[in-house]
Amino acid sequence: MALQTDTHSMKLLDLPLMLRLKQNAIVLHSELGLTEDARGRNSALLSGIVFPRGLHTLLGRVDDKNVVGQFRYRPGESNAHIVYLAPTLDDDEDDSAWLHMLDAMAEQAGKNGAQNLVGEVELSHRLFETMRRAGYAVYSRQVIWQHGPIVAEFPFADLEITPESEGDQTGIAALLGCTIPRIMQTVMGPSADMEGLVYRKAGQVEAYVAYSEGKHGVYLLPFLHPEVLGEAPDIIAAALLKIERCRKLPVYISVRGYQGWLENAMLDLGFKPWLEQAVMVKHLTAGVRQTSFAQVNLRASGGQKPAATMRLEYLNDNLALRE
User: Fold this and answer.
1) What pLDDT digit, counting tens, does each position of 240-289 carry?
2) Phi and psi (nearest 5°) for 68?
3) Is residue 323 helix, strand or coil?
4) Distance separating alpha carbons of residues 199 and 215, to the nearest angstrom
5) What sign for the dihedral angle of Cα 160, 165, 171, 174?
6) What is the pTM of this model?
7) Sequence-distant (≥ 6) Cβ neighbours of residue 189 within 8 angstroms
């Protein structure tokens, strides 16, 4: 017997059901989930109805099972990012409704112009296998390291690290281009919402620490050139001391699989490994069938910092920039 399915964008009449479902949600956007409570209260959910702000919320039904999914996408960007799915998927549960929702979000994101749909999921979670079945590929693994509020000065060298400026963009682009593997560059850079701190040495941008602050925590993405790996604890400590909210809120640092050498720096700074996740990506442009879809700009930033876009232009010149 064929499954009875239905999916539609969230309406005000759906609010009571969605509020109930999302209390048992799995968050797939670490930056939002750790800085703002992506499941908490009504803000993120209601904003998808009244003030979209790039949030798209869908309600799906397969037979008698309801699933709500939310993704974030802004026009002109390359990547959409799943915020959460609710309820969470139990180990012994049929995943048909979640597969249906993942497909529905991919279709909706593609219609809006996204080239990729991204989600971060724990490797041990049942949803990891469900996303693989839905056509998502693992781009990288990442470990989220956690530390409480920074209440004491770190016993590390006092380095000068400053907020990024327009004049730093070329150097940041070159740094990202040589530290993120080429295949991952459209997905793994800092988001457009993140601010950044820059460490320079001999006039070159040798480290860039992107960060996002919220009511619940501070989330950081460090990018360090191989030439300054020995200074990693000092650089990250200087960044933490520069961000005022790190003194009041929990701090989370994402270390991607290709940055394994940063683990020693995390331990030296007193961080503890907290979550191990897979960054999963589904390519959407190959599946576009409706002629009404928005045309995709192949040079879009993917929702990343301007520097992340510029790196495409400066990648080939990177060696010359460093000579």
Assistant:
1) 999 999 999 999 999 999 998 999 999 999 999 999 999 999 999 744 44
2) -110, 140
3) coil
4) 27
5) positive
6) 0.84
7) 176, 180, 302, 304, 305, 307, 308, 311
Reduce the DSSP state of residue 162 to 3 states and report it.
Answer: strand
Contacts of 244 (CB under 8 A, 6+ apart): none
Pick from 166, 281, 161: nearest CA to 231:
161
CA separation for the pair 323, 318 (Å, rounded): 9
**For the segment 182-202, what is each residue's pLDDT rounded down to a tens digit?**
989 889 999 988 999 999 998
| DSSP line for 195-221 | EEEEEEETTEEEEEEEEEE-SS-EEEE
160 SS3 class = coil
Strands 251-256 and 137-147: antiparallel
Task: Give the SS3 label for residue 182.
Answer: helix
What's the CA gap between 4 and 40, in Å, rounded?
A: 31
The mean per-residue pLDDT over the stretch 134-143 comes to: 96
Q: What is the mean pLDDT of residues 205-211?
A: 97
Tokens of 80: 């959409």
CB 193 within 8 A of CB 210: no
**End-to-end CA distance of the chain, in Å?**
66
Residue 222 in 3-state DSSP?
Answer: strand
> What does the alpha-carbon distance between residue 105 and residue 80 come to, in Å, rounded to a whole number?
10
What DSSP string describes 6-74?
Answer: EEEE--GGGHHHHHHHHTT-EE--HHHHHHS-TTSTTHHHHHTTS--TTEEEEEEEETTEEEEEEEE--
CB-based contact 233:268 (threshold 8 Å): yes
Q: How far is 38 from 54, CA to CA, in rounded Å? A: 14
Q: Are strands 55-62 and 5-9 parallel, antiparallel or unpaired?
A: antiparallel
Exposed e or buried b per residue across 23-39, where buried means at least 16 C-beta atoms within 10 angstroms of its C-beta? eebbbbbbbbbbbbbbb
